[in-house]
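Allow me, if you will, to draw on your knowledge of protein folds for a short while. I have a record of one protein: its chain in single-letter code and its fold written as discrete structure tokens. Kindly check, if you would, that the fold set down in the tokens agrees with what the sequence suggests. Thank you for your consideration; the sequence and its tokens are set out here:
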Amino acid sequence: MQAAPAPPVRLDVADTALLAQPACSADHVAFAYAGDLWVASADGGDARRLTTHAGSESRPRFSPDGSLIAFSGQYDGNTDVYVIPVTGGVPQRLTWHPGSDVVQDFTPDGASVLFTSGRSSHAGGIGRLFTVPVVGGHPTELPVPMANKAAYSPDGSKIAYTPLFEAFNQWKNYRGGTATRIWIYDTADHSVVQIPQPEERCNDTDPMWLGDTVYFRSDRNGEFNLFSFDAESGAIAQHTSHEDFPVVNASAGADRIAYEQGGYLHLIEPGNRPSRLAIGVAADLVETRPRYVDGAEYVRSAGISPTGKRAVFGYRGEIVTLPAKKGDPRNLTNTMDVHERYPAWSPDGRWIAYFSDS
């Protein structure tokens, strides 16, 4: 069975959507797109690709001086910590454990990368914090029992972190016992302070520092938006008011915050309104180019006609019938931009029912 080529996917190379996981420095914005890392100037121009490997590269974070980008990469079939110059080059692998090592931040001096890993945990889904030198070396475990996301304060005296995994990624508006909260850990006396939550639980995540203030994403007022916590006064302030799509994947750098919302990247500075970046990505995206494919592994569902002379298949989003012995295949839908699946033949053999995304 062979499917005809799909029409070419037309992308806006001047203002591309679906950019994700942004990070910012004084001069650049880094982000993930189609499984690779890209970097653009601070205003969104001159986007260029940093990585091209078939594996996924994710969670870019700039060093304090903006010269390096740390990220989690799958170059050798496993998710490990890497660093790459912002100008591009060969990524340097920093971790070698068979589990997943997820980049969180740089240490304030830029000498090490902070990451989470389950390598020393005896419970699934529980990660811990480690640092590893950017020049290579053995990771050091931090004295924090569990962590999922984390960021250093500018002076290194505190770490804001979320201890639990994010259940709200599976259940929107989750308010159960593992609702995500942010703790602020003091590296000197090992004390912990939690950012206050409303009486009804909410989800606070993506902690980040601008000066002495912790910024974070929260769904405490409905949709996820940006908030801040002033440790001195205990005041919590809201900084964005998106109602259509949530704020996701936020990170801070160079006295501002980059975040993803509605498929596009935004920047916001304290006291100012957010601005959306228009970033053009001209990628080859080989998986979207027109091509013929062949193989039974693309069959997703099937049914047999009442006479047994033909069979119907859901094949790469099309509804196709094939003869049992002699005859030609028939593509009944031939809609390259619509996904059809789960065909079923009527008892009298006159109709085929199926699901469609049209």
